[in-house]
Design the sequence.
């Protein structure tokens, strides 16, 4: 397999996982970031964020992975640059500030670089961004022409935080959006070691659109499930449980297949068709908002996706309603919030439903303790100065609680019923399952979304 020298600009979840994954496939990679602390951490073989398996790969590939704050040297010494900087949603559209800065800086290096270089956009950007924003910046700064003097491509990522290393090394698809044949050939060379993986070869704008469409589908499945859950709960004494409803839906031939041995299996999409307290993270919320804003900017309303956002933003309030069923006034009520990261397997609290849940509890006078296996440091930043009591383990979080709210599906929280019983409190604390992770019969008193 040919070895490619790659510079990856941005060492967040996408950039660093991509860099280390490419090293694992035999390439030499230089990570670039303006944050000197992140670069120092990477050089030590320690990830700046929690992601299972990443530290091990950092150490294993120490000989192939470099890290620097010097973008110019990194681009000069490599054949290809991957732009993997953040694109947050702000002011009614995605913020392309970091993308623009990276494109301008890379272009300035290309002005003096004698060899052909391919620039690949991995950041999530709305359709048209690469050819209408990135290419002009590169051409202006370099004095060269895309498609003639340098290559340009779009290669979106499909990484799930907490499973990102696995997702990169064993992808379900590779999307190659290329301006021209040489740019496409460069991507084919970069991913030559990914045998048997389906490849979608297309143009720049379609590749950009594929990423948004994939994320919007997942978000829609979640909000659909939550809207059904809220209807089930609103029916009151009807005895309808959304968990039973969705189990019945999952058995459809569209969501479950039966193998030759008679064993049934479900695609991973089925996991998104489940009720809970809403989605969060660095991708789904901002990508939905960005695509809705983009559609409206070009004259195409997006009512379905706007409704997906609305359902999600209201969902944390469903959790508070479950608390109020037993405690009409939350003043002085001791509440343990279990799980702060937006999903298990990560320390990322961006857009986590735990944040509005905690803030609403505090606003109504509750005394909040919290525990998360990975997100404690991030929680201290978001809730500073002792705003909430952060605990080191599950037992201490629930030791004196009146209500325990399961917010994140960490496997450790399957022990929650036993932990609550071990407190010996009378009456026993209320368990609110905001993810419908536990069977409703394992503990009393139990309340759950959609029950």
Sequence:
């Amino acid at each position: 397999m040919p070895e490619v020298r790659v510079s990856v600009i941005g060492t967040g979840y996408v950039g660093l996982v991509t860099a280390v994954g490419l090293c694992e496939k035999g390439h030499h990679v230089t990570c670039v970031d303006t944050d000197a602390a992140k670069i120092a951490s990477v050089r030590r073989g320690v990830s700046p964020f929690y992601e299972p398996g990443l530290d091990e790969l950092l150490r294993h590939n120490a000989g192939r992975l470099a890290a620097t704050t010097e973008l110019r040297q990194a681009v000069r010494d490599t054949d290809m640059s991957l732009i993997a900087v953040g694109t947050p949603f702000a002011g009614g559209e995605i913020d392309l500030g970091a993308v623009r800065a990276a494109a301008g800086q890379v272009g300035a290096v290309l002005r003096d670089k004698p060899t052909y270089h391919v620039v690949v956009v991995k950041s999530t950007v709305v359709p048209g961004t690469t050819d209408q924003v990135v290419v002009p910046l590169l051409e202006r700064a370099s004095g060269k022409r895309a498609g003639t003097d340098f290559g340009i491509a779009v290669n979106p990522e499909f990484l799930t935080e907490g499973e990102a290393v696995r997702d990169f090394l064993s992808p379900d698809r590779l999307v190659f959006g290329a301006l021209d044949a040489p740019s496409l050939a460069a991507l084919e060379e970069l991913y030559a070691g990914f045998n048997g993986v389906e490849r979608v070869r297309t143009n720049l704008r379609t590749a950009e659109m594929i990423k948004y469409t994939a994320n919007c589908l997942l978000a829609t499945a979640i909000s659909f499930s939550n809207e059904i859950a809220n209807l089930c709960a609103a029916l009151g004494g009807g005895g309808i449980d959304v968990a039973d409803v969705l189990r019945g839906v999952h058995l459809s031939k569209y969501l479950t297949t039966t193998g030759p041995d008679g064993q049934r299996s479900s695609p991973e999409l089925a996991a998104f068709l489940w009720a809970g307290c809403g989605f969060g993270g660095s991708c789904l919320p901002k990508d939905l908002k960005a695509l809705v804003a983009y559609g409206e900017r070009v004259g195409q309303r997006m009512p379905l996706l706007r409704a997906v956002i609305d359902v999600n933003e209201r969902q944390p309030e469903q959790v508070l309603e479950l608390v109020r069923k037993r405690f009409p006034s939350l003043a002085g009520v001791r509440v343990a919030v279990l799980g702060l990261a937006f999903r298990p397997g990560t320390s990322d609290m961006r857009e986590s439903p735990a944040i509005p849940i905690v803030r609403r509890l505090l606003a109504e006078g509750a005394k909040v303790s919290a525990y998360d296996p990975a997100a404690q440091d991030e929680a201290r930043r978001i809730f500073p100065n002792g705003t909430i009591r952060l605990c080191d383990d599950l037992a201490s979080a629930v030791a004196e609680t009146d209500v325990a709210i399961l917010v994140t599906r960490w496997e450790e929280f399957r022990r929650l019923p036993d932990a609550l019983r071990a407190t010996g409190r009378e009456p026993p604390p209320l368990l609110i399952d905001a993810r419908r992770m536990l069977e409703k019969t394992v503990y009393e008193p139990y309340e759950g979304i959609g029950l």
In short: The chain has two domains: 5-202, 217-448.
